[in-house]
Amino acid sequence: MKYAIEGKEDLLGWLATMIVYAPDNFPSDFRGMDMATAWSMIEEGLHRLEDKDGRPQVMDALKRVRKEIAVSRELFEKGEIKPACQKLQDVEDILKPLKVKREVQ
Length: 105
Prior knowledge:
Blueprint: H1 8-21, H2 35-52, H3 56-77, H4 81-95
């Protein structure tokens, strides 16, 4: 099954899914989902935002997001699930108020 993140709202939805289900409790309708795929989806969404809306405020926010994602990923790898999910919530807090162009909302 192919998963895609088309814009900011999809990315926020995926972050919420990860917060609830990661690292290994993804719902059955996410057949074949693993953490490698989940991280790839996030990166795909970030690239889409960069490509479609490269304004300085968006780029600055995405730089902060990538730092938080790196910390979250490291925490997941260490088995520290709750702090890892809290970092994903920090990512949500950065993205939610971010104004993006219509094509990547």
